[in-house]
UniProtKB/TrEMBL annotation:
Keyword Lipoprotein (UniProt): yes
Cellular compartment(s): Cell membrane
Domain of life the protein comes from: Eukaryota
Record-linked InterPro entries: BIM1-like, BIM1-like_dom
Name recorded for this polypeptide: Nucleoporin-interacting protein NIC96, putative
Pfam families linked to this entry: BIM1-like_dom
Membrane topology: Lipid-anchor; GPI-anchor
Stretches the record annotates as Disordered: 78-109
Record's keyword terms, sorted: Cell membrane, Glycoprotein, GPI-anchor, Lipoprotein, Membrane, Signal
GO cellular component: plasma membrane; side of membrane
C-alpha cells in the first residue's frame, strides 16, 4: 500500500445536530467557533499524517444512525485554500453496536 506524508488534512463537515468524534486520521484540534472555516480554522499545516492512497478510510464514532459527511483532502505542500480533491460519503452506524467505529469510504460514482 502506497503511503504519503504529503497528506495535508482531512476535514469532516456534518449537519449541525451531528455528534461524532474523528478517530482517524487524527484531527489538528477542535474549536466549534471556527470549525466551518477552511481546515477547521487551523492554519498551521505543520502536522501531517501518513495516509494510504488506495482503500483509505476515515474512522468516526457517531451517536446518530446516519450522517452526511464530506472529507476534503489536499496533497499540496502548504494548502491555503479548499483542496483539489473531495470525497463524499454517507456514513451509517448501528445504534445496536455501541462504541462502534464507522468507516467512511468514497461513494461509488
Amino acid at each position: 500500500m502506497i503511503m504519503t506524508r504529503a497528506f495535508a488534512m482531512a476535514a469532516l463537515a456534518a449537519s449541525a445536530s451531528a455528534h461524532f468524534t474523528l478517530d482517524w486520521p487524527a484531527t489538528r484540534g477542535f474549536n466549534e467557533d471556527i470549525e466551518n472555516q477552511f481546515c477547521g480554522g487551523f492554519s498551521n499545516a505543520g502536522a501531517r499524517s501518513s495516509f494510504p492512497l488506495g482503500a483509505a478510510g476515515v474512522n468516526i464514532d457517531s451517536t446518530h444512525d446516519t450522517a452526511n459527511v464530506i472529507v476534503l483532502i489536499s496533497f499540496d505542500a502548504n494548502p491555503q485554500t479548499s483542496p483539489s480533491s473531495a470525497i463524499r460519503a454517507t456514513v451509517r452506524s448501528s445504534p445496536a453496536l455501541s462504541n462502534s467505529t464507522s468507516k467512511a469510504r468514497p461513494a461509488s460514482q
